[in-house]
Each structure stands twice: as structure tokens, then as C-alpha cells.
Amino acid sequence: MSLERAPQDRGQDCNAARFALLQRAERRVEEAKAGTDGSIDDSGSAQLRDAYASSLDAHLSRCAACRRDLARAEVRIAFLRDLARVEAPAEMDGAIVAALQAGARQSRAIRALTALTPFSAPDALARRIAVSRTPAVLDRLVGEDLVDPAKALASRYAGRLERLRAPADLEHRLGSAGPRPATRVLTTVLLAAGLVLVLGSLVLTQVLRPRHMGTETAGTDSAQARSGTQAADRGPLLIVEHVDSVRSLDPVAADVLSGFTGGWVDAQRIAREKL
Amino acid sequence: MRAAAPFTARMLTALVALCIASVAAACSGEVAATTSSAQEQLVIAQDQPSLPFLVSMVDAPERVAHAGLRRVEIHLPADAATVGADSANLVYDERITADGAGHYAIEPVTVVSPSMTQPQREIFEELQRARQGFFFKYRDLRVRDLELFLGNYAVTVVDEPAFVAGVECVEIEVTPRADPRRSYRLAVDPRTGLVLRTIERDATGVVVASTTFLEFTRTPSLEGVEFHAELYAGTPLEGAELPKGFAPARPQILPRGYREVSSEVVELAGDTYVRRVYGDGLENVFFLQREEPAVAVDAAADPVAADGMPQVHAATPRGGAVMVRIAQVGSFCVAEAVRGRCTYFVIGKVSEADVLDILRSAL
Amino acid sequence: MKVDPDRELVEACQATAPSGLEGAFRRLYDQYKDRVYNVCFRITGNATDALDASQETFGIMFRKLADFRFESKFSSWVYRIAVNAAIDHKRRAASRWLPSLEVQNESTRPSARADLRDDRTEAPLHAATRHELEAEIQSAISRLTPKMRAIVVLRFVENLSYEEISEALQISLGTVKSRLSRAHEALDRELTPVLDRHYLR
Predict the structure, then answer these.
(1) Per DSSP, what are the bridge partners of residue B70?
(2) Which of residues 232-261 of B touch A (CB under 8 A)?
(3) Chain B contact for C88, CB < 8 A?
């Protein structure tokens, strides 16, 4: 018996018959295993008999490819069903006991921690605002950045440039020369063009400016990190408050730090306890 | 006209020159960065006296069966909430056993400093046992990603071999390229790649942490060893089920040389967290995100929980600004920020500026 | 709705809040350990990862049992945990390098311990060939996507009905059928040359 494969793409009928065919294969394997004929009646095969059996039979009678598929599916399912049932190894009991003990240990550790009196940072030392009190204008600028960063940047620089004044002697020379209106327009146009170039280059500079990024080796990550440069420029304003004691941080943060420091944070805490 | 035209021409020339200069500066910045990086790699390549030995360091703790007693010392500035300078030093012994197939146990043995009473020591040891998985994976100094490690650290082999617990080791000096004042001195068993001694110094040359095997064997007895059971193993974030409405944030700016190592959903103290770990090949930075259930917050309430621990509030001062609380412990920086119902944490051996970049780019 | 056959045992666990592998939880464990291990073994493809995933399954079961409200069959819940633990474990294992000791160590291979002399399962193939074939079938399963792997294991190894699979994996009956169909196609591609080879010997 050869189980050469049938072509993948066949007619609509074959596609429609595909699942019914698999169910039939399953049923036949079950029947063969149970040594019965049609006695297996799980919901799948019952449905099959009711709804699809006759049409499947009809299809199989005229489709050699599906007959081959059915034969292959039967063999495949028979082997899958016959995969040796694996018994849990003897060491699993020990592993489970260890896992449950570890769980109990974790609970004991948590209980031990909660039994300790909490750290409380001295009021005078506890907090100081480092970067604080942002002027209201900053909120506006941040808002503008969020809406259109390039425009915000350009308008900010343009705002500065507007306030630049030409040196007095130049003003005098220009005034005495008394350029004609057409020349003045040309000058203005050229200057405006120059200004646009400057602003454009400034924006470009912002885009090209190298940054501290994730390393470039991981393709997806680096791509995301690169696009994130701009996202970070638009990130929220952070107001930083320094705390002098890690214990005034969230317990989870303190716990991770304690892990990194080999238990140092806990040792600090426990050593204060009168136990 | 005559006066205006040269002026305009000069102005334009100056403006165009400015444009070209600024664009060129930006571009050359990138080029310079690339060239510099390539040169660094070249230096690294030339400095590789025994690459296979470095390669074997990556997974040695899991791959090599071993056991031993080791002394761990941590010297950090005393916490403001701690009375007595002595408690700033933590010195203890622990026994590590690994079966070489990924299973391990780290059992506390004695606490040398600070001095603790019996009940204090029992609590401390209980906590240490509960944390052995974290110690093995994140506390213990090890090369986690060789490519990243070599990109971020300069490695020099010390001429003289070192003997640690009777094992002849190759000693290497590892210096972060970003801050060459800091250093790690590692004594490595060249046959296995296991690190048998680490001495970490801060920027002033002061030893801030060390781990030294006092006894060591490569043929451990595994009888009766209760291996660590990973109870709270994370689920990879991709495809994980998160509580409804929990939108995982992802930092877009990482400290220089860091790369994402893992993104998982973990359960800590009964809460669901997204935990992202970033590494530079040697050190790790954690980014954690937790979302509180939607409950009304009494703004006037004292921000102290039932257990007396000060709680972080959802401080959103104005204009979408976010309050970040930062604690610096030696070279570690810990930050927490609350935005809406989400609390974010960044913890690692990185600068405050890096931590803020991570947070800002994630929020 | 049928009464969950495990209800009594689960409620006994919930009532006593077990502190370890004892009492009602022990009975529950004994009832499920082979099923859980089997699912984990067939999904992870090796004994070490299967043991770890089983350990994780029972750890989760132990911790969450008190919250189980019989909104699904208990067995479906257990299968769901086991499938997820095994898939997660395999994903985690793929991201780290660990030597697979089973490759060298025949004695730890569960298939080597399994009784292959069962009259019902013994085909007219020589036992050694059968062993080899089984390894190839396992290997083909391992190459399926995690979702397909899970459905194949639950259907053919654990013999769950489509409805039970739907409940365990929390997917619709239609998805069960279409996923199973796709899994068959993939297995067909993988196994036809293998089965041909064994048949033509």
C-alpha cells in the first residue's frame, strides 16, 4: 500500500467533504479499535451519520483523491491514537511537593514581612521636589508638541528669530540706500526662503540627531525604538520627587530592589526590628 | 540696491551654510557613532584572547552541575530610614546546588553582618529562600548575552591566575564602556565558564558587592536537595490574557546598549503585572506595570495603607504631567510613576536620566 | 447540565484549604497526574519540560482551586492550565539554550517506559520500528504550531470530545473543527513520507 499524497487543491466538493472525511476516519479507527461496527456513537460521528454520511459516500464513490485522503487519515489517526500513554514519572510527586512547599514558603515569607513594622522615612528627609513647579507656559508648549511637533518646533524658532535685530549700522546703511519697493519685496522673499531653509534644517536636525537607543541588533525592536524617539519627545512631563528611603516606595519596587541587592533592603528592615 | 543686494547675498550664503552645517552635523553625528561603534568592535575582537571561554560563561550556571558555599557581600549607603551605619553592610553565606539541567537551589546558611537575633535571622532566611529564583536569574553576575556584553563592556584578562575555593581561575576585568570608572573583577573557572568570584567596584573604586565561593565542587550530591520550584513563572506577554482594559506600555527609549530580554505577564503579591526585562549583556533593568481596579479614590485620605506602608497616589498635577518618585540606592535607581490607574516601576543599575527616559517613552 | 464528576473532591479541597500534597488534594492529584503529564509531555516533547510544566500546572491548580466556581467542567479547567503551562514552558525553553538530556538518556524517555506490548495497539510492525515511528510522530506533533499541537493532543491523545476541547481551550466548536482540520493537513504533510517509509519496509 502506498500513501502517496493527493494534489492539494481539488474541487469544491472535496473541500466541503474534508471535515466529514476526517470524522469518518476517526469513527472507523474507533470502530476498528473497539472491534465493533457502527457502535461508536460520539456526537461527532452521530452528526456525521445524520447529515453527511450519504453525501460523503456519494462523493467518495466518485473521488479517488478523497478516498486516498480517507485512507491516509485513518492510518494517521490510528497512529496518533496509539501513541503510548505516558505515565507521570515517579519523581513528579517530589517535584509537586516541592512546588507546594515553595508556595507555603512564599506565604510564610509574606506573612513574615507583613508582621514587621513598616519603615517610615523621617519627615524632614523623606521628600524633596527636585524638578518641580513648571511654568504654565510649559504646559502650552507640551500641548503644542503633542499636536504637531514639527510645527511647534518651527514656530518656536521662528518666534525667536523674529526678535533678532539687525545691527544699528546695518540699519543705517540700509536706510540711507533706500531700496525700492520691488527690491524690498525680493529681499523679503529671499530672506523668507532662507528662513524656511534654516527652519527646515533645524527640524531635519532634530530628526537625524543620534540618540540613546536600544541596540540596533534586534530588527523589530530597533525599528520600534527608532520610531519611539519621536514618541519620547512627545512623552508626558515628568515631575520628579526624590525619596531618601526605598521603604517609602511601593512594596513591589522595594521587593525587586531587595532581589537585585541580594536581600539588602530586607536586611535593613529586619535589623531594625526588636525581635 | 547695491548695498542691499550684497547683504541679501551674504545673508543667504550664511543661511545656506548654516543649513548645510546643521544637516551635516546631524548626519556626521550618526556616521561618527557608527564608526566609533565599529572601532569598538574591532578593539573587542582584538582583545579576545579566549572567546570560547567567554561563550561558555553564558549558560554555565544552568548547564554545569556544581555546588558550593559562597559568601555574598553587599555594601550600600545606609538607607535614610535605617539607624546605624553597620546595617548598610550585608554579608552572608549561602549554599548553591545546580544539577546541570536547569534546576538549582540556593539555601541561606549564615548571616555574618548585620548582627541579627535568631528570630530576625529566621525571617531573613525565609525571605532569601523565597527569592532564590530571582537571585539565580538576576542577582548573580553572569554574562547573559555575549554579543551585547562585548558591545557594552571592555574585557581585559588579568595576567595572574586566581585561585578560588581551590580552583584555578582566569581573572578578567570587565569595565562598562559607558562608564569606565566602574568595574567588575570576575574569576572564572575556564573549564566550565562558571564565575567563582565577582568583585564589583563603583566609580570611586570602592567595592560595592562581591560573591566568592568558599567551597566548590563540580560533582555535587543532589540527594535531599530541594530544588527551586518556579511558582510564579511569567507567561510570555504575546498571547497572554490580561485583565480587561489593561494596555501594556512599552518603553521606546532604552539606556544605551540595552535590549529587551523578555516581556511577560507575572503575578506579584496577588496583582497582575506586565514585566519587561532589558539587559546590556550583564546587568538588567526591570520595567513593571500594574493596573489598579477601577475604584473611587478618596483624595483626602491619608496615603498610608493598612500595613502602614506609604502608598503612591495617582498624582497628576496638571497638564498631564506625571509625578515620578525616585530612590537612589548606591548605583541602583528605582522609580515609580502613577498615571491614571496604572503604576509603573523602573528598577536597575542605570542613571536617573535613563530611568526617566524609559518612563517618559513608555507613558 | 451534567454534574461534574470531580465536584465532590474539588469541594472537599475547597473546604479544607490543603497545605500540601495531602488529603483531598492528594486524591485530585492522583486522579489527574498522568493526564496532566501526558498532555505536557506531548506538547513540550520532552520529559524535563513536561515535568516542569506539570509542576507548574499543579502549582497553579493548588493556588487557584479555592476560586474555582464550576463554570466549566473541572477537567476542562485542568486541561486548560496544563495546555497553557506546557505551551508557555516550551516558549520559554525555546528562548534559552539547554542541552536536552533525554536525547542521550534513553532511560528517561517516557516512551521507553511505556508498555508497547499492548495487544490492542501493537501493529504488525516490529517493536523497534514502532518505537522509531512513534518518535517521528511525536516529532511531527512538535513541529505543529502550539495551538494545533494542543488540539491534536487533546483530541487524539486524551480522547476529548469536540465539546470538551471547546470548553478546555475556550474556543468555539467551529474553531475546534477548523483548527483540527488544519492540524490534519499539517500532519499529513509531515507524516505521509514517514508512514510511507514504514509501510514500504
Answers:
(1) B94, B213
(2) 250-260
(3) yes
Distance CA C174, CA C182 (A): 12
Testing the interface with C: which of B235, B272, B277 to mutate, by most C Cβ within 10 A?
Answer: B235
Q: Which are the contacts of C99, defined by CB distance < 8 A and separation ≥ 6? A: B63, B101
Tell me if C20 sits within 8 A of A101, measured CB to CB: yes
**CB pair distance less than 8 Å for B101 and C52:** no
Chain C, 134-193: which have a CB under 8 Å from a chain B CB?
Answer: none
**Residue B156, strand partner residues:** B173
**DSSP H helical segments within B97-172, as ranges?**
118-130, 132-134, 146-152
Interface test with C, best of A2, A3, A30, A91 (most C CBs within 10 A): A3
Which regions in chain C score pLDDT beneath 70? 1, 92-130, 197-201
pLDDT by residue (tens digit) across B93-145?
A: 999 999 998 889 999 999 998 888 888 888 888 888 888 889 999 999 989 88
Element (H, E) at A223: helix A219-233
Angle at Cα B297 formed by Cα B295 and Cα B299, nearest 5°?
175
Record the cell numbers describing residue B162, joined without a space: 586566581
Mutation to test the C interface, candidates A80, A101, A106, most C Cβ within 10 Å: A80
A117 neighbourhood in chain B, CB within 8 Å:
308
Q: What is the pLDDT of residues B28-70, one digit of tens each?
A: 333 333 333 433 333 344 344 445 778 889 889 999 999 999 9
H or E segment to which residue B40 belongs: helix B4-46
Question: Cβ contacts of residue A78 below 8 Å, gap of 6+?
Answer: A29, A32, A33
User: What is the arrangement of strands in the sheet containing A127-131, beginning at the earlier edge strand?
Assistant: A127-131, A238-243, B322-329, B332-339, B342-348, B284-291, B271-279, B259-268, B235-236
Q: Do C92 and B101 touch (CB under 8 A)?
A: no
If one counts every other C-beta atom within 10 angstroms of the C-beta of residue C154, the result is 27
DSSP state of B310: B
CA A15/CA A33 separation, integer angstroms: 28
Handedness of CA A162, A165, A171, A175 (dihedral sign): positive
Q: What is the pLDDT of residues C176-194, one digit of tens each?
A: 988 888 898 888 888 877 7
Are C82 and C38 within 8 A, CB to CB? no
Burial (CB count <10 Å: 0-12, 13-18, 19+), residue C44: buried
Which three three-digit cell numbers place residue A232? 519620547
CB contact under 8 A, B235 and C88: yes
**Minimal CA separation from A81 to chain B, in Å:** 29
SS3 content of chain B, % helix, strand, coil (to 5): 25, 35, 40
**Alpha-carbon B297 to chain mean position:** 34
A214: which 3 cell numbers? 536600544
Dihedral of the alpha carbons of B316, A229, B176, B64, in degrees to the nearest 10: 90
**CA–CA gap between residue B116 and residue B52 (Å, rounded):** 44
Q: Which residue has the higher pLDDT, A40 or A26?
A: A26
Q: Cβ separation of C88 and B62 shorter than 8 Å? A: no
